[in-house]
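Aim 2 progress update. The chain analyzed this quarter is reproduced below.
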Amino acid sequence: LAVSDRRRPRPKKKRWIRDAWSAPMPQIFQQGNDSFWKNNPCPFERNTMEYREWHRGFNHAYFVNMNSAR
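Predicted structure tokens:
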């Protein structure tokens, strides 16, 4: 076969170092929920999955508190 007839092997897909199951998301959500009531700051770096999940728990507790205050 000529060089032009040979197919190059496809490059392998890069895998994420962190995927959806690498961190215990329910525990991080609960930590954010508890942190709202204890007034603790977020321990995770910005723009990470853990940061977003922590804030999701924090915001959940905030809105539960807002609805109970009515």
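The longest helix spans residues 49-68. The chain has two helices and no strands. These observations will guide the mutagenesis experiments scheduled for the next reporting period.
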